[in-house]
Amino acid sequence: MTELTFYGNALPGVEREAYSGKLIVIEGSDGVGRSTQTAILRTWLESRGHAVIDTGMTRSVLAGRGIKEAKLGHTLGRLTMQLFYATDFADRLENEIMPALRAGFIVLTDRYIYSAIARAVVRGVDPAWIRSIYGIAMVPDAVFYLRAKNAEQLVKRVLMSGRKFDFWESGMDMPLGEDFYDSFVAYQTRLLKQFDEMSVEYGFRVVDASRSIKRVAAELKRATAKIIDAGTLEALQAASNKSMAAGSTTRIEDLLQVEGASNH
Amino acid sequence: MISYGEHRFPGKLFVVEGTDGSGKSTQLALLHQWLIAEGYPVVFSEWNSSPLVKDTTRRAKKRRLFTPTTFSLIHATDFADRTERDIIVPLKAGAIVLADRYIYTAFARDVARGCDRAWVRELYRFAVKPTVGFFFRAPLNIAIDRIVSGRPQLKYYESGMDMGWSDDPEESFTIFQGKILEEYDQMVKEFGLTVIDATRSIENQQKIVRSIVTRHLNGGGVVGK
């Protein structure tokens, strides 16, 4: 079980009970490979016998559709957009992420509050203001930051994928350059700077994303396994202490063996 | 940094606040007509009216998807859109902006629903400070009578049914409005709201409102006249 902690104030009406799942965040720039890695990690976790849900920005029942409609028109004001994202986030946190965590799921989220903060700050929003709004966020069990070295690396990925430069990923709502390419480079460079600044503040585990998909995936699996197993050990320790107090002779090693057998 | 606070725009912003049934919208409509007749450029803006956000709010209300936090955030989103389009722009251009409900509505309702007082205030930090914030204060029983007798059925969120205070809509509404009124009373000093006694006659209230508004228009800035 993990104690539920928030960055700021706890959500109103939410019980502050411990949860048995794990909240794992995959963060990083546009096109850095987050969704590919999330998909690989999910399949692998499920093959290990864990129940997994994945979620990501603008996927809420409440606000997802509204945001997508508003983005099509490119007419959202800067503040409005940030608050719409915060609404989407809160809905997913309360109605999707937290219930799943209580039920013991591993929740993989493609982006969390950090992308939202970076995008807002790059658009001139007060960093303290946007952080305090996201004070409603619970602190995740781990944040893996898939780090690209520079915007050029991201450019290469866009080109290799055969996609075009996207309006929003290029920050064309501002814009920062004459065309999509110039603006993309300038915008992504600024975002990278924000991510780097948040890295220490929020305790990101930095993963070098310039390597092959396979190598990045291997590192993510290893690190994720550690987090899950640490949680399991803790739970077993607690269970063992309890049974010892009750006069039972079960040792933690016995419990671990049983757990290991059912898991593999 | 985007934080408007005390604005230096030439226009003027007058807002009306109060519990449901306090008569504030009637007063604002009368003020609006009068200002137009006087030859001022006037823009009217009401709570929950952003075309971009309205559909989301309506859908979520219908399906009862809101928690206190998302209810608060979607209204802040709506308000941000109004601020960016309907409030800042005319104020810069030198118009009079009239707002039916403003940030104080959010402060009262969201805190009544359990949101953190400081968090909600921070959420709305980008709002423009009104020239005058009128608070139409009606005693609880009068306001509730006006609403309950004038409406076939109380709505789910309007009556605070989402909070589970009572299974009876009217009782829930009474509890909710009581909490809201408490918050308003606290805000009078905090934000320097101008209290208008909503038990007085409509004509009498309007006379007071107009005299206060006139004082702020004589200072200049507003286009016209």
What's the helix and strand layout?
The complex is a heterodimer of chains A (264) and B (225).
Chain A (H helix, E strand, L loop, with lengths): L21 E7 L5 H14 L4 E5 L7 H10 L4 H25 L3 E5 L2 H10 L4 H7 L8 E6 L3 H11 L18 H22 L3 E4 L4 H33 L6 H12 L1
Parallel strand pairs in A: 1-3, 1-4, 2-3, 4-5
Helix pairs in contact in A: 1-8, 3-4, 4-7, 6-7
Chain B lengths: L11 E6 L6 H14 L4 E5 L4 H12 L5 H26 L2 E5 L2 H10 L4 H7 L8 E6 L2 H11 L18 H23 L2 E4 L4 H16 L8
Parallel strand pairs in B: 1-3, 1-4, 2-3, 4-5
Helix pairs in contact in B: 1-8, 2-3, 3-4, 4-7, 6-7
What does this structure look like?
The complex is a heterodimer of chains A (264) and B (225). By secondary structure, chain A is of the alpha/beta class. Chain A has a single domain, classed as 3-Layer(aba) Sandwich (Rossmann fold), CATH 3.40.50. Chain A is built from 9 helices and 5 strands. Chain A has a 5-stranded parallel beta sheet with strand order 2-3-1-4-5, sandwiched between helices. Residues 246-264 of chain A have low confidence and may be disordered. Chain B is of the alpha/beta class. Chain B has one domain (12-216): 3-Layer(aba) Sandwich (Rossmann fold), CATH 3.40.50.300. Chain B has helices at residues 24-37, 51-62, 68-93, 103-112, 117-123, 140-150, 169-191, 202-217, and strands at 12-17, 42-46, 96-100, 132-137, 194-197. A 5-stranded parallel beta sheet of chain B has the order 2-3-1-4-5, with helices on both faces. The longest helix of chain B is centred in the middle third of the chain and has 26 residues, at 68-93. Chain B is globular, with a radius of gyration of 17 Å. Chain B starts with 11 loop residues before the first strand and ends in an 8-residue tail after the last helix. Chains A and B meet through helix 2, helix 3 and helix 5 of A and helix 2, helix 3 and helix 5 of B.
CATH topology of chain B: Rossmann fold
Spell out the CATH superfamily of chain B: P-loop containing nucleotide triphosphate hydrolases
Give the spatial strand order of the biggest sheet of chain B. Answer: 2-3-1-4-5
Helix content of chain A: 40-55%
Secondary-structure-based class of chain B equals: alpha/beta
Spatial ordering of strands, largest sheet of chain A = 2-3-1-4-5
Integer tally of domains of chain B: 1
Summarize the helix and strand pattern of chain A as letters: EHEHHEHHEHHEHH
CATH C-level label of chain A: Alpha Beta
Low-confidence stretches of chain B: none
Instruction: Return the CATH topology of chain A.
Output: Rossmann fold
Tell me the CATH superfamily of chain A. Answer: P-loop containing nucleotide triphosphate hydrolases
Unreliably modeled segments of chain A: 246-264
CATH architecture of chain A: 3-Layer(aba) Sandwich
CATH class of chain B: Alpha Beta
Shape of chain A: globular
β-strand percent of chain B reads 5-15%
